[in-house]
Amino acid sequence: MLNDFLILMKQELGVTLLIFILLFIKLAKKEWKNETVLGLVNILLFVNLAAGFFFIHKGTLFGDMFRTSELLSFEKNILNLGTLIISLQSYSWLKQHKHVPEFYMLMLSTLLGMFFMISSSNLLMFYLGLELSSIPLAAMANFDLDKKRSSEAAMKFIMSSAFSSGLLLFGISMLYGATGTLSFSEISWQLTTLSSLQVFAFILLIAGFGFKISAVPFHLWTADVYEGSPVAVTSYLSVISKGAILFVLVSVLYNVFQPLDSAWYKMLFLVSVLTMIIGNLFALRQQNMKRFLAFSSISQVGFILIGITGESIQGSASVIYFVMIYVFSNLAAFGVISLVSAATGRENVDDYKGFYKTNPVLSWALTIGLFSLAGIPPTAGFFGKFFLLLAGAGKGNYWLITIAALNMVVSLYYYLRIVKAIFMEANDTPIENVKISFAPKIAMLICVGGIIITGFASGAYKYIYSLF
Amino acid sequence: MPLAGFVILGLFGRKYFKNFSGIIGTGLLLVSAALALYTAYQYFFVNGKVDGAYPSVTAVKYTWLSFSEKVSIDMGIILDPISAMMLVVVTFVSLMVHIFSLGYMKGEERFATYYAFLGLFTFSMLGLVISANLFQTYIFWELVGVSSYLLIGYYYDKPSAVAASKKAFIVTRFADLGFLIGILILAFYGETLDFNTLIQRLTEHQSSQSIAITTASFAGVTALTWGLVLVFIGGAGKSAMFPLHIWLPDAMEGPTPVSALIHAATMVVAGVYLVARLFPLFTLTQAALGIVTFVGLISAFLAAIIACTQTDIKRVLAYSTMSQIGYMMFALGVSGYNGEAGLGYTASLFHLFTHAFFKSLLFLGAGAVIHLIHSNEMKDMGGLRKYMPITHITFLVACLAIAGIPPFAGFFSKEEILLAAFNSNKIVYGIALFTSGLTAFYMFRLYFSIFWRAAGPSPLERGWGEVFHGEGTFSMKLPLVILGACTIVAGLIPFGEYVSANSKPLASHVDPVFSIAPVALALAGILLAMWMYKKESSRPQQVSAALGGLYKTAYRKFYIDEIYLFVTKKIIFNLIGRPAAWIDRNIVDGLMNGIAAVTAGISSLIKGIQSGKVQSYALYFFGGIIALAIIFLYLWK
């Protein structure tokens, strides 16, 4: 029993251990230097990531509350990797910060919450994981302590989040009323007929998910929170947090709500179309790079939803594959922005004119990231999008595919706008050369390498596909 | 053949190391052109036919990824008659352009970048040509798009060039969407992306895939037709077919050698190539073929008319390209699959082949002229034959070829196209014939305006003085001469022997009697152009000659000219040419601009929702739930 517990929950335990280590560092009499803490944490995060690849077992714990499998472990590894990249990227920002251990404690708590959420096989467990992953996020959003915008972002986040959680709980209670159980496997047994109560409960659940992945019309908090938060938190919110929810969404829809598939298929169709279109339209107008990436990531979510509508193994495999690529591409872009923002405080698209002249290396990293987000071959993003569309096409819904393809063109336009600014436009006051320290350099390498390698080598997708 | 495949791969490896300067780039391309020729030689003459048909060989195949149990994505190299032919055309024209650019682009600041872009473009084009499956084709297709974007926007400090490259990119992207969706449909039903397998599965009558794709339908049209039409839209975008052609004239902002490469011989014919590649599938559905015919014909005709009204020499050539590609398209459209009926297919690819030579020759000639005059406008030119004899002769050869005068290359291919049209549909034939007359007219209008007309100011008067550099360097003249020679002999190749729809040799049938009408019409066009543009130019001299007593005759002639000008310019051009140009400018362009404006408008509208107030966010959130509930509980069950 204890052995099972140790092995099956090792990823969660690893994160918990990290949190405790940080707690002791904070409580230690002697104040630790920031550099030391950061170095140690990054090494530990790496060890934690590496450990995730060994001793992978399948099983359930706590009376079917917690389950894990190779696939779930892989999903958690993706999240671990993303967290490590973000941690490396925010090195220069955190170095000057007074509360480094707290930041990591909060971040790791949310990560722990996500792990529990991914592994949950009971609505109660799921809800606990969800809350654990969102409440500390509000505190993280507030981490630019001297900036008013940052506190505003935190307030908005916690209030919207509370609101959505309330409705989600309402949905869960309805579902309990309809089926008399909270366990995933039993719910799917009970859901046989499409009663109004069940559909409505399901809508509330979708709204709760939609809030987290900022799908339209539940996305409105996104812009303010993303803009006000520190770059590290914004990238965490838009990559890791979204990725985790998407993993859960796929498995919940495919496994638990399978009987309701005709209903959720239509719902996803609608939400996906709205999300793509509105995300794109907002992204078109943005002048602030952070806001721009935030909105463009909304429209990316719309794409992911298309893959989910495919309702097949290819569907879920391509979603997981895409999220992995999305981690690389989005973090490559966010990484550059965060470096520039930390060094010069400039975040506008216009500031990036002539960026190539002063920062050729960063320019290429940013360009590769943007190309991948835009889905230009042969970057990984292209394959990711292509597979999503292919999976979505499996249902034969060509309207959805057409709308998606149109949106791809629009998004291409705005991603290329930035590439054009970087390479082709002149600027009297370009961003001065930004020195890249060791940690962000590694993060950049991982991201760019990931984009290129997953683009050319096919092993990743095959591996994911084989996990089902 | 695997050996040949290996050789080509070696060539790619080489090309990946960016060609850092002109000489290296040209040298590398020389090697690749030689390899391409060798490959084609191996393919056609050494390996030869199997069962009387040229086999389609997949030289290299590597399963890159299996997406699901059925669909896998491979990377491969395909060699069949058309890809062997395209290999030769692409490398050869690209080589000529590389050599020409050595002189033309001399002294440019970003000389090395230019060659790197050229190398990238050539690489992607070759990749496109030898792709063994739809997915790989799409990747290279996009790469071709990106590299042509870079080349068109090469003069990036010129706003018009940047706008043009953007336009080209956006328009072709829209078309690529169609292509992508088409691929998805074909891949979904055919359960493969590989060309050969796909064609084999779908043409087989009783195969499950073929039944699935012909029975599934959407909006009353079978999935097969949808897929093919969408793929064709992609091809039409790249090949500048009506109504997606609007980017082509603007793309003339790029350096002229680039136009010769991209807009004459390679990228714009990618659409034709794609249709030819999937031709066995197109023959399965009359509707798709009908659309190909119709679009090709309209493009050919419309572009020919517009070309008559343009004064910028590159734009005339651009419209002429569009018109010729229209020819290739409808030739495919009227073609059948087997034997005699497959004439259109052969003719189309034959025309593609010959067109590559003479059109790149025309563009390079125009480049030489622009290099000398520093202007694209016809009115700045005239009487140049004395200053650039080689350009003059080669340009004349190309004009004769495109007009379809025997024995130049264009004659043979055009005759075949017309014959194919004649056999299939008399109306198509009539329009095509008329267009061919127009072609002769506008090409010779161009020719006479540049090289004849007024003697023009002498070099000194033009202020060239010391900097007068004659025709340009040796490197600029050489390609002109080589291409000129090719233009003369290319038509004599028994093309049907090598390339035909079912890969079995098809004897060319050019009946001398049949050729009378087109050639006569072409001659009429030439004479008309000569009469209008050669004589008009002699006006100044005749006015002076009038002082010597011939005043009256000269006056009368002048008068007739005026009438003629009135009829053509005021009536024909205004009634047909202008509206055509107007539709082009306002409706088609306007539509594109309109989409952008509407998008921006909606975007600013919904910005109001983003108020920053958490209360209202919660309200919208709740509203979203209610809306979803209403929709899914009551409306859309």
Describe the structure.
The complex is a heterodimer of chains A (468) and B (637). Chain A contains 21 helices and two strands. Chain A is mostly helical and 468 residues long. In chain A, helix 2 (10-27) packs antiparallel against helix 3. The model of chain A has no long low-confidence stretch (mean pLDDT 83). Chain B is mainly α. In chain B, 73% of the residues lie in helices and 3% in strands. Chain B contains 22 helices and four strands. In chain B, the strands form two sheets. Chain B has a two-stranded antiparallel sheet. In chain B, strand 3 and strand 4 form a beta hairpin. Classes of the chains: A mainly alpha (468), B mainly alpha (637).
Q: How would you briefly describe this protein structure?
A:
In chain A, 77% of the residues lie in helices and 1% in strands. Chain A has 468 residues and is mainly alpha-helical. Chain B contains 22 helices and four strands.
Average pLDDT metric of chain A: 83
Radius of gyration of chain A: 21 Å
**Structural class of the secondary structure composition of chain B?**
mainly alpha
Number of domains of chain A: 1
Largest interface: pair, residues per side: A-B, 62 and 57 residues
Strand order of the largest sheet of chain A: 1-2
Task: State the major sheet of chain A.
Answer: 2 strands, antiparallel
Give the biggest beta sheet of chain B: 2 strands, antiparallel
Work out the oligomeric state of the chains in this entry.
heterodimer
**Considering DSSP H and I runs of 4 or more, what fraction of the residues of chain B is helical?**
over 70%
Q: Which spans of chain A have pLDDT < 50 for at least 5 consecutive residues?
A: none
What is the topology, as strand order, of the major beta sheet of chain B? 1-2
* Beta-strand residue fraction of chain A: under 5%
- What is the beta-strand fraction of chain B? under 5%
